[in-house]
Amino acid sequence: MLPENLLKNDERAMLALRSLYNSYGYRPFKMSKFEEYELYVRNKDFLVSDRVITFNDTDGRLLALKPDVTLSIIKNTRAGAYDKHKVYYNENVYRVSGTTGQFKEIMQMGLECIGDIDTTDVFEVVSLAAKSLATVSSDYVLDISHMGIISAFIAECERGSNFTRKMTALISEKNSHEVYTLCEQYGVPSEKADMLASLIGIYGERSSALKRLEPLCTSEDAKAALCELASLDKLLTEHGITDKVRFDFSVVNNMNYYNGIVFKGFLAGISEGVLAGGAYDNLLRTMKQDRRGIGFALYLDLLEELEEEGDGYDVDVLLVYDSKAQASSVAAKKDELISQGLSVYSATNVPEKIRYKKIVKVN
Fold it and tell me: How many Å apart are CA 241 and CA 232, to the nearest integer?
C-alpha cells in the first residue's frame, strides 16, 4: 500500500471523508451499477441530463447505467416516516459531459439523510458539507440558498410555469437586467420586479444577508423559509462555522424536487462547483413516500484540477535495495523508519516521478 502522501487528491479525500462520515453515524451504502430504466424515466426532470445509457438484461428488462445516486438510495431504503436513514456512498455515475457531449464516468462521494428530518439534521448535513470541503482544501466556500424563498418570490408574480422556469435561470445567472425585461414581457408589476432583482443582489456574509432579506419576505411561505435560514445561521455561528459559509440566492435547484435549503461548494483553483446538495422533500413526494430528505455529492473527478498541497514531497524516505539484499533486512529497515514517523517507499531502483526528501540504501 502506498503511503498516504503518495495518493492522488481524490484518493486522499475518499479516505478522510469515510472517517468523517463514519464519525457522525453515517453508514456505507453500496449499490449496483445498474437500475431499471423506468426509475429514471419517471424522474427524468430530476436528472442533470435525460440521456441515459441503456441495455437489455438477459430477462428482457431494460436497464440503465445509473446517472444518479440519490434516486437509487431512495428506491432501496425503506425507513419509516419516523426513522432516519443516514448513509454515505462512493459511487461512479454516467452522464453526458458538458464540454465534449459524450458520456463520462464521474466519481462521486456524498451522503443522504432520509426520514423524519428536523433542524438538527439540516444543520448536520450542511456542516458536513463544509467539513467535506475543508478536508480537501482550506481554501473553500460554501454558498447556501433556500428554494422556499425563491419559489415564494416567483409565486407572488403569478405568471405560470414558463415564467417560473425562465426566472429561475436568470436568478441563477445573477442577471438582474434580464429579470426586469422578463417581468415587463409578462406584465409583472414593477414592485415585484424590484423584489426579484433585489434578491439576486443578496449574497455574502450571513447576518448581513438576513437583514437585507427580511423586509422582502412578506408572504407566509417566504417568512417560514427565512425563519429556517435564521435558525441554520444561528447554529452555524454557535459552532464556529462563519466566514467560509455564505448566503447566495443565485444557488437554485429544480423546484419540482427541491423545496428547502440548497447549497453549492467551491474550492480555489477549480473552475466549477465541486459539491452540490440540498433538501429534496418534493422528490420523495413524487415517489409516493411520506419522508423528508437532504444530502449532497462531492465530485471527486474535479479534484484532479486541484494543486497538490504540502511540502512538495511525495514521501519522506525512498528506501532502495539491491537484488542481493535479504527481504528481512529490507523489512526491518522500513519498520525502523516508519516507527520514526516517516513515510517510506521501497524499490529496487529510483523511480522517475517520486519526490523524496532523502534516500536510504540497503545492500
Answer: 11
